[in-house]
């Protein structure tokens, strides 16, 4: 199972992403949901996800890339 973390401040968008993953799980499990970048960094260090799904936020992306350069990251614009 690949562990997935969702970082999204809008509840409805976070829920939509979660439902898409749940319906088509194919080996994915959601281990953390964060409402902002600070929470995302903290949850990342606690849960060590394999994949991070987040809205394009340069500060968060840069921090994660510097701290954990080998992790899977999917960023979207919204």
TrEMBL record:
InterPro entries: CheY-like_superfamily (IPR011006), Sig_transdc_resp-reg_receiver (IPR001789). It comes from the Bacteria. Residues 3-78 form the Response regulatory domain. Transmembrane segments: none annotated. This is Response regulatory domain-containing protein.
